[in-house]
Specification:
The protein is an alpha+beta fold and 62 residues long. It has two helices and three strands.
Length: 62
């Protein structure tokens, strides 16, 4: 079976003063603080959260 694609996501802008739904998306991706990097599986659910808060993230394929 092929290995699932993964994405490396980094929070590059602060959560201060953001909309509650955007904060929830960042938390759902597993990001906790500025410059924190996590690796997530490339699924439609994760892509949706990334697209919603793309202005705060840096994303690269692994």
């Amino acid at each position: 079976m092929a290995k699932a694609k993964q994405l490396r996501v980094t929070l590059v802008r602060s959560l201060c003063g953001r909309v509650a739904r955007h904060k929830a998306c960042v938390a759902g991706l597993g990001l906790r603080r500025m410059h924190h990097t996590v690796t997530v599986i490339d699924t439609p659910e994760n892509r949706g959260m990334i697209n919603k808060v793309s202005y705060m993230l840096s994303v690269e394929e692994v």
